[in-house]
Amino acid sequence: MNASDAPSPSRRTLLALLALTGTAALAGPTGATAATTGASTTVAGQSLTPIAADPDFVFATDLSGTAGSGEASPVDSAYWLGTYEVTNSQYLEYVDDSGADTPGYWDGGTYPDGKADHPVLQVSLDAATAYCAWLTDRADDASWTFRLPTEAEWELAASGPDSLTYPWGDTAGTTYADPVLTSNYNYNSVCAAYELAEHGDESATYTATGSDLYGQSFPISEILSIGSTGTVAGWNVTASRTGFIYTDVYDALTATGGYTTPVTTYAGGVSADGVWDLSGNCWEWTTSVITATHGGEMGQQVNAIRGGSWYANLNSCTAIYRGEGRDPSGGYPTVGFRVAASA
What we know:
Layout: H1 11-18, E1 41-43, E2 46-51, E3 79-82, H2 88-98, H3 125-138, E4 145-147, H4 151-159, E5 175-177, E6 180-182, H5 188-199, E7 203-205, E8 217-219, H6 220-223, E9 225-226, E10 232-233, H7 248-254, E11 283-291, E12 301-306, E13 325-326, E14 335-336, E15 340-342
Parallel strand pairs: 11-14
Antiparallel strand pairs: 1-2, 2-3, 3-15, 4-15, 5-6, 7-8, 9-10, 11-12, 12-13
């Protein structure tokens, strides 16, 4: 199945996009035809944006989030970074050519309808590294080498030399006036706003074993709520295993790849260098190994992930948020990747 043959974005996606500002055209990069913009170039089907070196780079925070305590991590050489997160359609081309395993939410050897230009998820760091090697072999110029970025390279591209909180500046600019969410990026409030606007009166049933409300059903509007600045209540109440993520509605959502959006959706969230989705949509792998200070991997040696996701809260989606990581052999429903390259 070619990306050009993929169905149009689903009604679910279209409805979500109506609530956004700065939305790009729905037609985004598909397969090996990613658009070239500004100083970007396209190599082996990947749109790449140049990022300048910064030998004086220092992380804005340490792994615990303390501002001003980040360690120096020089970025001595200029590099290229994927303009977009790697999409389902791009990964399908790799799967078809290499025989690699498909992500768990794909069915029949391909991605869900309407998600050609959404970021691919449930790809382990090991599999993402193999994808990069495949791109290197496909490059017409043998001087190109594809890889995954380091954590310092990722933050430098997302936050810039001024250590901006977001790729576009120091304020999120998010507002919610029922039922309209205005946002520069895709995070859990985008999903919550859609559910409230389209299914608020419908019931969701708690399915998590051990939940205080296991088997009980409630209208989604009684589970989720959104504040005026885009904060979400009722998404995840860990102690009681309640909240939206412990319901059958959420289970059905993740079974088809979660509430991602096409990688050209959020024009208001583009970085100064022209890189998209460095906040939200999906977490992105880096090659840097850290001791996690947040999430279920707290205290473990893992590979740092950056950028937040469709599932994450607004605090996790900043350009300077650190401390999250995952085991490199695992595939996760909120983690994807973008490539880096050297030439």
